[in-house]
Design a protein that fits this description.
- The structure holds two protein chains of two kinds.
- Chain A is mainly α.
- Helices cover about 65% and strands about 5% of the residues of chain A.
- Chain A has a single domain, classed as Orthogonal Bundle (MetI-like fold).
- Chain A has a two-stranded antiparallel sheet.
- In chain A, helix 4 packs antiparallel against helix 12, helix 5 packs antiparallel against helix 9 and helix 12 runs antiparallel to helix 15.
- Helices cover about 75% and strands about 0% of the residues of chain B.
- Classes of the chains: A mainly alpha, B mainly alpha.
- At the A-B interface, helix 2, helix 5, helix 6, helix 9 and helix 12 of A face helix 1, helix 4, helix 5, helix 6 and helix 10 of B.
């Protein structure tokens, strides 16, 4: 309360008043951000650099020592077929999910952008699944995919079809995880698009209606240009989020069969906390960081060019 | 086409669209309905075939079993402690820092703010190995602080609160300054009450995020009595083959999902507004 008395010398530079707050810069003002900065430095900045350092060490589990090996871990990673496989799996997963999040999210938002009760309930249903945790979602979907007793298998048998073992078939494991993921968190892009649609002034559509413009035409010439920024936000957010695929893969398929659905984060987790190759896992996490940053930046610049040009 | 025809056509089109969305919504609910049905069947019956889930008799035995055995209650309690801890911590730190960055000038503030924003770009996976090592060195794993503290370093709340404080008209705190109030008093008495909507947004986000967090609690909490509900449910489904049975597992899933679902139903309006607000920023 009496921050002036804490630093009488500095008070000269600021507007001087007997007890109250002063306008202008003072070092005591930094006390407001100090508590957060402690956490920021100790638990984000420090581990970020420590992680980079660890990625250049080779640790020995037996005598708990480690020695500096430069880029050896990275060299080993890029000769590790399983790791390269996880990169492709993750990219494939991002390519499968992100366009669907954008397309279905936007379609749902367009259909449910009204103020009646039915639309409100439907919005609640589509968004409701995203509040569930990944572990509940995977329990539910295991019961869907189970080849013997699962819901999908039962329906297929009803139609006289041979049930498919989704999560144990190499070519279907990752798509099955993608379907689960879309079911789980389609609500977020839908809500983001809804918020954007509600920002579009109604007069624009009224004018279009007077011109007898078709629904399709007003979508292309009014709706789409108005939500361009949100589209970019959704795409970048989803790219970053889906690159971090972990729980669904770990719990539904354990990365199998034969690594067909193993994403990068599962690789990091297993190397780091199952095999305790900490340096190796840290190097893999730096590679993931780099790929994510490049993907998000590339998307950002590509769309900015399109908007400008 | 006459104008009236056009409007009629549009009306039918709207109905068709709504009808198809209702259909999709029904499909969307099927997995949960299926889980619910399975949870109401005795395990022995499900061992033979899950098809019996479609017809009665149904039983609540799987749910009463939860009350007797299982660590579910302990895990729910852990999740509650962790989520409340993370939420409270984030609200306090972000409000203080948000006010600081928006209003309280000091040397180097703007550079520090940019550096904090850069922190938003760092994914959890890039720091998780080193964090685990740090908490190992301090012998802190399997404690509440170990599960809670990393969540407090997120820059998202600071960013949100800074934006919010910046949007408050400056006249309000300048008037208070003329009354000779101290910085902290202005923050606490004048500006903080105005940020309640932002606190609600950030609070809900932080709570849901902490409740559903999986990777860090999985790594840090290795003793079953320190599992959060998310990690606990993961452990039961991995031992699913030898576990207490399908119906029981489904009942656990439904039961574990309930608290957060109730929170969702109660705060739905705020959650929707929170998501929308975050989008517009």
């Amino acid at each position: 309360m009496t921050d002036v008395t804490l630093s009488p010398g500095k008070a000269v530079a600021a507007v001087k008043r007997p007890t109250g707050a002063s306008i202008g810069p003072r070092w005591t003002n930094a006390l407001f951000i100090a508590p957060y900065m402690v956490f920021y430095l100790a638990l984000l900045v420090y581990p970020l650099f420590k992680g980079i350092w660890m990625s250049m060490l080779e640790s020995d589990m037996f005598d708990d020592t480690s020695k500096f090996t430069g880029l050896a871990n990275y060299y080993r990673l890029f000769n590790d077929k399983i790791f390269i496989g996880t990169i492709w799996n993750t990219i494939f997963f991002v390519l499968m999910t992100v366009p669907v999040f954008v397309a279905i999210g936007l379609l749902l938002a367009l259909a449910l952008n009204r103020s009646d009760r039915t639309s409100a309930s439907l919005r609640a249903i589509f968004f409701g699944t995203s509040v569930l945790s990944v572990t509940i979602v995977t329990i539910i979907w295991k019961m869907m995919y189970m080849p013997g007793n699962g819901a999908i298998a039962s329906v297929m048998r009803l139609f006289g079809l041979e049930p498919i073992a989704f999560i144990t078939t190499a070519s279907l494991a990752l798509p099955a995880i993608a379907v689960t993921t879309i079911w789980w968190i389609i609500g977020l892009p839908m809500m983001l698009f809804l918020a954007a649609l509600q920002q579009i002034p109604g007069e624009l559509y009224e004018a279009a209606a007077l011109d007898n413009a078709s629904r399709w035409r007003s979508f292309w010439s009014i709706t789409l240009p108005s939500i361009r920024r949100t589209m970019l936000v959704v795409v970048i957010y989803e790219i970053v989020a889906q690159f971090q695929l972990f729980g669904q893969a770990q719990l539904l398929t354990q990365g199998g069969p034969n690594n067909a659905s193993r994403p990068i984060v599962l690789f990091i987790y297993e190397q780091g906390f199952r095999s305790w190759n900490l340096g190796y896992a840290a190097a893999a996490s730096e590679v993931l960081f780099l790929i994510m940053a490049v993907a998000a930046l590339a998307q950002f610049f590509a769309s900015r060019k399109r908007v400008e040009g | 086409m006459a104008a009236s025809e056009h409007i009629v056509g549009r009306g039918i089109g709207n109905k068709l669209i709504l009808l198809s969305v209702v259909l999709v919504a029904v499909i969307w609910m099927l997995p949960i309905a299926w889980t619910l049905l399975l949870s109401l069947k005795p395990n022995s019956e499900l061992m033979i075939s899950t098809a019996s889930a479609f017809h009665p008799p149904y039983t609540l035995k799987n749910y009463t079993d939860i009350f007797q055995s299982s660590g579910v209650f302990r895990w729910l309690w852990n999740s509650a402690v962790v989520s409340v801890g993370v939420t409270a911590g984030i609200l306090i730190l972000s409000s203080l820092a948000g006010y600081g960055f928006a209003r309280a000038e000091f040397k180097g503030r703007d550079i520090i703010f940019v550096l904090v924003l850069l922190g938003l770009a760092v994914p959890e996976q890039a720091v998780i190995i080193a964090r685990h090592q740090m908490f190992s060195d301090l012998k802190m794993h399997n404690t509440y602080p170990a599960i809670i503290l990393p969540g407090l370093s997120s820059a998202f709340g600071v960013f949100l609160m800074t934006q919010y404080f910046k949007a408050i008209p400056k006249d309000i705190d300048e008037a208070a300054m003329l009354d000779n109030a101290s910085r902290f008093k202005i923050f606490w008495k004048v500006l903080l009450p105005l940020t309640v909507p932002a606190q609600a947004t950030l609070g809900i986000f932080s709570f849901l995020g902490a409740w559903n967090d999986y990777l860090w609690p999985l790594i840090s909490a290795t003793k079953p009595e320190m599992f959060t509900i998310t990690v606990g449910m993961a452990s039961t489904q991995t031992n699913f083959a030898q576990s207490e049975g399908l119906g029981f597992l489904m009942a656990q899933a439904i039961f574990a999902g309930l608290p957060v679902f109730i929170v969702y139903l109660f705060f739905q309006k705020y959650i929707v507004r929170a998501v929308a607000g975050a989008a517009i920023n």
